[in-house]
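The instructor's notes for this session suggest beginning with a concrete chain rather than abstract definitions. Hand out the sequence below and ask the class to guess, before any prediction is shown, which regions might be ordered.
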Amino acid sequence: MKSRAFSITRLACALAALGASLSAHAQYGDAGCLENAPYDSYAELDTSAGSPYANGCIRTLSDKRAAVLLPSALKSAGPAPGDRSLRRHAWGFLDQNGRLAIDPIFEAVGDFRHGLAAVKWQGRWGFIDTRGRMAVRPQFDAVQNFTQAGLAVATLDGRHHLIDRQGNYVGEPLDESVASLRLQDGVPALATLEYKLEYRSASGERRYGDAGIHLIRAYGKQLYVARNDEGRYGLVDGQWNWALEPVYDDILEPSEEGALALAYGPRGAELLDPQGRSVLDEGQRYRELRQLGNAFWSAELERGSYAVLDAAGKPVARLKGDQAYGSQRFGDTLLYPSGNKVMALIPGRGEPVELGADLAVVGDLDGYVRFTDAQNTSAGLLTPSGAWLYGDRAPAWLGEFSRMEVRQGRLWLFQDTRLLNVIDADGRALLKPETVEAAQQMALRPLALDMPGGPLGLLSHGYCHCNTETGAGLVLADGSIVSDAAWTEVTPLDVVGRYDGEPPAGLEARHLRYAAHTADGMRLLDAAGKPIDLPAQQYIGEFRHGYALAYGGGASRMIDRDGKAYALPAGYFDTEIVAPGVVRFVETAAEDAPWGLYDFVAGKVIAEARYRSIGEFEHGQAVASLGPDRSGVIDLQGRWIVPASHHAARRVNAQLWQVQQAGPQQEEYKRPSALFNAEGRALTAFLPNLQAHADETGAITADDGKRRWIISPDGADALDMEDARYTRLGDWMEIRRALRSGYLDAQGRWQIAPAAVIGGTFRGAPARALVSDDDGDRVIDAQGKTVAVLPDGDWSWPAGSPTLLRRYIDQGRQKTDYVGLDGKVRVSAEGLASAYSEGYAVSQLSSRAMRAVDARGALTGPAFDALGRLSEGLAPVYADSAYGYVNAAGEMALLPAYETVSPFRDGRAVVSTMEWSSIIDRTGRPVARVAMECGVRTLYGSYGQRLWPLTLPRRCPG
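After discussion, reveal the predicted structure:
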């Protein structure tokens, strides 16, 4: 399969060539008769002999007309020019016999195509016929050639339009995002669209990258890093006005929201605040700045010294080179030596803190740093917030710890296995003495659910039951213990999220509940460890949706956090809570027994038992199933939001579901799926490999690798991006679209809508075209239906060829197959071969030499440096450092004497050297020639007589 990148590169080259085709022939240019030719390796094989030049003084014949640049018929000859600028020249046309068919009066021209040629008159473009009559009056800023379908592209005021042969607009107006439209021959006509870089706001406003401002990323609130056309960076506001002029080489992204941003500009390295203002004083000029964690910056000064700036850009210390190289960072704290002393730069403090002399770091963990002194004894502990616990400021037990662990941001200190205490980031010891004493005799376990203000841990007997007088309990946030001798164990009833490790939404420390195990059963405890007024239960489950299942006195019931009980019907075999106040129930133990929904707060059934399964509800909806391939989404009344006609469903977010299509599927991972919103409306098509994920704004992106949708977080809107790629930039979205190809009918309507394919022109009857995309190459009919899928290879279909060409490597050798539309190989040839013309093709071999290929695919005739296809019995050839022509036998018919040549058409060809261009017949006899004489381009006839200008400039020999 042909690489899409390679195909797009070829198409981009073709578009670039098209853009040059008219503009390259401006009125004023160099007097030489050679122009640079756009390069395309396949076009070289199929249309020329590979010259890097095109005919310049007489352009190649097209529709029996050749454009020519001569002294203007509208200006007098005047004096002989003193340079070679061709200022008083204009464009006209010669016929195939070299006669001046249309006087040189135009500022620029295109070549004739289908009877019309583009001409520029008084700054505007229109079209003339082969007799020079105006067919479309000059009115456009730019135009392209007319195509076989009778359409052309015209540009006016930056917008592209389709016009017919009378200059009337046809078809629907093109979207303003279209940067260029290229039409090619064929019916329907191939149309290739190139798109502008687009920016779209959350409100739908659209801006484009051709306006001289290119957004790079969001910056702070309502500001954006942007680049101008000169490559300079600045900041723009939400209305795209420069809030910070674009004078910077770069503006880097801040490390976190609200932090300073590093920029490089005329003053060197600078720091910008969230409003885009420089925070450095006029005297602060630095060659380089480097961020040190989130709290400091290192600024390089002269002579190898450094300044340390705080998070606001204010200098807090100046370090010599040895101090800077000896510095270390622990969390956001910086340590550096000063003589034999250790200094600390602590976030939020305006000057260094002296820690002491002869200190060494012997351990650090998540910003907690332990020091020893010169005697290798414990000297102190530095916490992440900068608390320095040492000497008299340190508790006595601080020097005893041999092991430390960080749990939920707190430092747990141990002497071997014995817990000494817990220290927070501010250096506070959290456990009271009695708690420490109890923890040393019992097991203190941290809680998985860590909430500000909540208990620190669970106290239990562990394995030894060393202290049977103290029961199990809770260690509260203030370091105290709440316990009871009757409690054998305390378990938490609120757990972290099953997937994200986060507490349930809305849960606060005061809501937490625990269960104390006693000889009489389980007692419900509040967040402070106080028993709640609820009799002991044989079982209390975890709280879900604000309720827990409890069993006691021979009955199951639901309880809330205050201990209030709610009865469940005795006849149910099993119940499971699935929503606040709602359980799913099953009445029997049978394996296929159906499930229903029961509101235990209201005491009523809300959905009869008819579901094969019911999932947990979130935001009032859940997945439910009636059986295989009968899944959907229901609400709390059991009504179907997404019908039960799908294979499966999963939640994407609170308002979106990804639903899989029902039916047989050989490869399950390719099962088509679509996104539905909470109202049951499909937002995307059903596609295999559809993936959905959230971006930083909460919006959902859905794509299958080819097509994309952007869906609002509430599921209300879905923007079909087709094949475009996008990047979020704050409130704006950068949209990049690939080249798209489609096909237009003669009225300018889309017969085949544009898509991300590389399209070929339609030809033949019935009409067929070759298209390529990421899935490979195929042949389509005029309605866009695939009629043949092609095997891997590099496919093309040159104009005039009855067969497709497949170029590929076989056992290290380049080969070309000629393949019919039925997929059968007609002929194979060695090398990189062209299409056939007059019974022969040409092939470029591994040696880079070129030879002819006969009808059987065999190489024939001599090898040449370059060889073109036969046209009217002659083929362009490059030999002896010049171009000439050979016949079908490979014999030299016209000796090499030219620097570029065209194929013969209607018995005529155009040839050029640097000094002149000529129209020749099949014998090589010139019928017309254009060369410089007396500072102007001059047209000569077949006998060397001057045909134009009628009068040479003054002071020239007659």
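Then share the key points. The chain is about 5% helix and 45% strand. The helical segments are 4-23, 41-47, 321-325, 433-441.
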